[in-house]
Amino acid sequence: MVGPMPERADAIVVLGCRVLPSGRLTTAASRRAAKAAEAYLAGVAPHIVTSGGRRWGAQIEAEALRRALVRAGVPEQAVTTELWSLTTHENAVFSAEILRRRGARRVLVVTCVWHVERAIRDFRGVGVDAWPLPSEGVRVGALRRVYRRGHELACTWLDQRALRRAHALVRAVPRPDPRGSGAPSAEENTR
């Protein structure tokens, strides 16, 4: 799927996942935050984007991840939150805009091992030079692995469908005439 992780990147994106209603991170979210903080503190990238707008009670994924990163020693000004996405595909779309505005080209994406392949595909699909930085996985039984694989296949299909629809919408938007008014020039009228 991908080569070795780059030694340096312009940014790290941490994908959101379930947060407890109390605001505490789940094991998966804690591992993602820890991996991102470790990379940041090692000087791998100067900035982190926490991505995830899903609410769990009063808690928003990206905000909970930001708080965990700051507690781990990442300066608050080094973290940007992306609060609109509800899916992996939307994580990629909305984070890509933040990354472009910051001038970030090479990006490390932090998520669970079983989720990283789809996440990288989605980020690359929206033009981000994305590289995986998977958090440590939790050992699970065979039934859970089968469920996760099925979930990833279904979500991949949905993400690809959403991407095709987005491309169709972009192609359907009328483009301004590069010559200016859109009307034919005097030269064109005489031909």
TrEMBL record:
Cellular component terms per the entry's GO annotation: plasma membrane
Domain (DUF218): residue spans on this chain: 10-150
Q: Know the name of this protein? A: YdcF family protein
- Origin organism is Polyangium fumosum
